[in-house]
Amino acid sequence: MQLLDAARELAIRPLWRLGFRPFFLFGTAFALLAVLIWLAALVGHAVPWQPAGGWLAWHRHEMVFGFGGAIIAGFLLTAVQNWTGHPGLRGRGLAWLATLWLAARLAWLLGAPSVLLVPLELGFLPTVALILGRSLWRVHQRGNYPVVLVLILLALADALSIGGLVTGSDDMQRQGVLAALWLIAALMGLIGGRVIPFFTQRGLGRTTQVKALPWLDWSLLLAALSLAAAFASGAGLTANPVLAALCVPLGLGNLWRLLRWYDAGIWRVSLLWSLHLAFAWLALAPLGLAAWHLGWLEDSSLAQHALGVGAMGGLILAMIARVSLGHSGRPLEAPRAMGAAFALLNLGACARVMVLPLAGSMGYWLAAICWAAAFGLFLRHYAVLLCTPRVDGRPG
Description:
Helix content: over 70%
Number of domains: 1
CATH class: Mainly Alpha
CATH architecture: Up-down Bundle
CATH topology: Cytochrome C Oxidase, Chain A
Order of helices and strands: HHHHHHHHHHHHH
Shape: globular
């Protein structure tokens, strides 16, 4: 690790010392508020304004690009410091990047004109990709270049969605958002495939780690990217049995990886079983999408929400709970309440995917309340941690 000027680093306000701090804090607060606002709009309560494109366009875009984009940025801007041995973005530069993210969220929510909204929205992900790519390029760390590629593709998916907003094309907006959702699935498979077996081995004190199967990992990454491309082109918006042939191997491959990593000891550690359950949703979602493509499932949104709520939401909550502890110098022992938060997140995913088709609006209410409570518990126990210095006195 490159040596830092400790006095200079410690002069930076704690919130701006490393990427995970502002983006985990702002991203989770946004996740909580955005779902409650969406629920209020959905059930007809008086919301005194319209966001750009209407409430549905706002909800589907912001849960993927707003919430997901913030957490991805926070995680990668923190991880790249460990990957490269060079300091990550911090101080004024980090504050400006977080301000750009926040400005885009406000512009979309408050219905700002396109001349303001478009540059704010389209500036964030390319900036993160540039920062990450430059850091990796400096040390020629080619193994993480695929992460930069996924970020660039996410930025292009965002541009597609914004193009649909500007032209009034609902199909283009859906293409961009759903492509991004499956790009995030690709990123979760890539990062999760590295850290879940490692965290499991370390968390349970096992002497050996389950060996990766590179051919499997790369095949699943390619399958997820191909599925994202199908949505970006519009081919994925209508049921197509050919695409089921792509979804089934993706789902079964992720399930196989999960079974290889399994250790009965995970159920004693909330920071571990939460990761494994989230990855189970990552296996279930493409299988559900395959069922829709084959005509066995009427509503494709059930599979998309299995991915968005169960896999993305679950993996985010589990990862940020662990990463925040480790990078603040604390023991890797989550507060007891986080076990309830992880359970609530998974209950919310079940409500959105399984209860909603049977019970209608009750499923929406249960899913939204569980989601908000889960992230509310995270903020209750981690907000102060994210805004205060490391307990060991080190920078970061």
